[in-house]
Amino acid sequence: MMRRSAVPALFSAALLAACSTAGDGDFPSLAPRPQEKLGFAEPEAPPAAPVAADPALDARIAAVARDRAAADTAFDAAATRAERAAARAGARGSDAWLDAQTAMGALDVARGQQRDAADALEELAAARAGALAPEYPPLTRALAAARAGIEAQTRRADAIAARLR
């Protein structure tokens, strides 16, 4: 019996002795490494290189701008007609109300022309992004103007439509 109790005691003593042995000192330091001292802030982006002028793209943007101007004119005329028709509209189903609904349909067609012009600009921007070309400021400005125009037209059309409900 004495032998059985001596084996675990010797095994435990051997484990404790292994834990207390001093190594050769090649353990890694727990101090922060140089990379860890840099922090987590994003590095500053390099300044953007100037974008070269693109005459072909400028010509296409100018053509779309002309289309947008024509669409704006058509929308303004259709919106004026729709506003007048909405002011004259009577009860639902009356002839005046149906005339106002028809004017709203013409207004939607005019809004579609503005969206078509904006879609053409979106396609130009998508093609440029697909080619990994840098952002082209005249195209960005034209897109912003087209989107703002669409939002303004939508607000005006919604206001007219609200009168017909």
Task: Report what the structure shows.
This protein has 165 residues and is an all-alpha fold. The chain has a domain of 102 residues. Helices cover 70% and strands 0% of the residues. Keywords: Signal. It comes from Sphingomonas corticis.
**Largest sheet entry:** none
Strand content: under 5%
Order of helices and strands, N to C?
HHHH
Low-confidence stretches: none
Structure annotation, total helices: 4
Structural class label = mainly alpha
Integer average pLDDT:
85
Shape: elongated
Quaternary structure type: single chain
- Cα distance spanning the termini: 100 Å
Percent range of helical residues: 55-70%
The rounded Rg comes to: 37 Å
The count of DSSP E runs of length 2 or more, i.e. the number of strands, is 0
What topology emerges from the helices and strands here?
Elements: H1 2-19, H2 55-88, H3 95-130, H4 137-163
Helix pairs in contact: 2-3, 2-4, 3-4
Could you name the key traits of this structure?
single chain; mainly alpha; elongated
Short summary of the structure?
The chain is mainly α. The protein has helices spanning 2-19, 55-88, 95-130, 137-163. Keywords: Signal.
